[in-house]
């Protein structure tokens, strides 16, 4: 019989976990020992728990499977709350494992260190932002509880919570038996698929909008096949940016209402049958436009449910639904689809003019054209809008939850999950939050290229409220910090300098390369400028 620590590690691996991020503490030291000595799942320690959560989140997004964050009780787990909330909002199956006081300590009657209010405060707070929880306080039931929560994480693509009392890590338990996939009614799925196909094939201007669940449930290739079979153009939402990059001719662009390309906006807003696949109906995806989706015409598949007009079909897992759609779709393929992929700007002028955020996107397009695309992790702020001007590339970003500080740690998660060299896009404000995590690159051999959009301010907030001076930040000179953290930094202000810095960064491997792009205050990317104008107009301000 395995002990509980090893049984849990085996179960994580069996359910698809390929890495663990964590920060230890006394309540989780025994489990960390199991992690290290078993070598079962590769693990990485970082510097601050928010980064642990963001790195696990990004890794899970990249390989579309569970990823694991291990922390200590109280001070550690509470530090993780915001990252888990973001994972819940954007449907990322992060498995949170927290050490905890031993069952014997719990009965001693002391106030225990790291205890906020009661022994249960932590599990109650985490219950609000996870879809299943297991406090493993009984070795007899622990294997079944582990199987349940890991099954839930995969089924619902949401975070889950496991609490592991430190004195039970060595307890003998039975191995964890994974649960079979949830039973679904094939007839109900076929009926739903038939109704969807009826709508799509009789519509004059159908369009498929894709968002995060398409990635989470690994149905990108099936969506691409369906679009070609039906001859329907595909558009991503803002949050779904970076999907279907394997099929570059298929995706027309990203829907951003007035902030995006007018052609894409027309494809969506003039459609008489918009098919929203795995789409989060969020304001960042839709409220930028005054256009309202007509519920009578909209088909929406999300969270295992399909709404067609006012009909609701429960029990529709996305992969099964796509299988049914493909089985019933007319045979043959359309070689030409309506519209065309939007063109991204290339050819950054190497001159002395001050660099702008949109110039950065053009420079990155040139870099990718010359050296191949890199997976991108972006923070919140203008860098995310500038990223929309980079040719559609695998990208993770908190486009809906919008938690700052995601970019750098997510880039580290991307390095682990993809094995490739990531590109990190981050503003100066966000870099102040989590930039120091780059100091962990050297010991693990990660060498991301990091572009800091340094406009010495919270520019995105200034765009909404230009009169406020509190959006000014100081100049921290991030390029000089790079060396201390084990990387190399360059500070650039003109377009020629940026181009040279990017070329040099691409050539230098083995240390992270930080390019501090100095941007004039008040200058935003073209996309952010349009986004703010659109948002204000849609809200009537
Ligand atoms: C954890 C609110 C959204 S955008 C922004 C703030 C403070 C400014 C970002 O500044 P940065 O980028 O990184 O310099 P830029 O391009 O705008 O200059 N706290 C958290 N998350 C969010 N989203 C905020 C505050 C916010
Ligand atoms: Mg800034």
Task: Characterize the structure shown.
The chain is an alpha/beta fold. Helix content is 40%, strand content 15%. The strands form 3 sheets. It has a 7-stranded mixed sheet, with helices on both faces. Strands 2-1-3-4-6-5 form a 6-stranded parallel sheet, sandwiched between helices. Helix 8 crosses helix 13 (318-328). The longest helix has 17 residues, at 186-202. The chain is globular and about 65 Å long. 53% of the residues are buried. The model has no long low-confidence stretch (mean pLDDT 96). It binds ligand TPW and magnesium ion (MG). Ligand TPW binds next to helix 15, helix 17 and helix 19.
Low-confidence region ranges = none
How many individual β-strands? 19
Small molecules in complex: ligand TPW, magnesium ion
Total helix count? 22
As laid out across the biggest beta sheet, the strand order is 9-8-7-10-11-12-13
Question: Mean pLDDT score, rounded?
Answer: 96
Biggest sheet character: 7 strands, mixed
Structure classification: alpha/beta
How far the N terminus sits from the C terminus, by CA atoms, comes to 65 Å
Strand content: 15-25%
- Global morphology: globular
User: Rg from C-alpha positions?
Assistant: 24 Å
List the helices and strands and how they pair.
Blueprint: H1 4-14, E1 20-22, H2 29-38, E2 43-45, H3 49-63, E3 67-71, H4 75-89, E4 94-100, H5 103-106, H6 121-127, E5 133-135, H7 142-156, E6 160-165, H8 186-202, E7 206-210, H9 212-216, H10 220-230, E8 234-236, E9 251-254, H11 262-269, E10 273-277, H12 283-286, E11 299-302, E12 305-308, E13 311-314, H13 318-328, H14 357-371, E14 376-378, H15 382-387, E15 395-396, H16 407-418, E16 423-427, H17 428-434, H18 441-444, E17 449-454, H19 459-464, H20 478-484, E18 488-492, H21 495-507, E19 513-518, H22 526-539
Helix pairs in contact: 1-7, 3-4, 3-16, 8-13, 10-13, 14-21
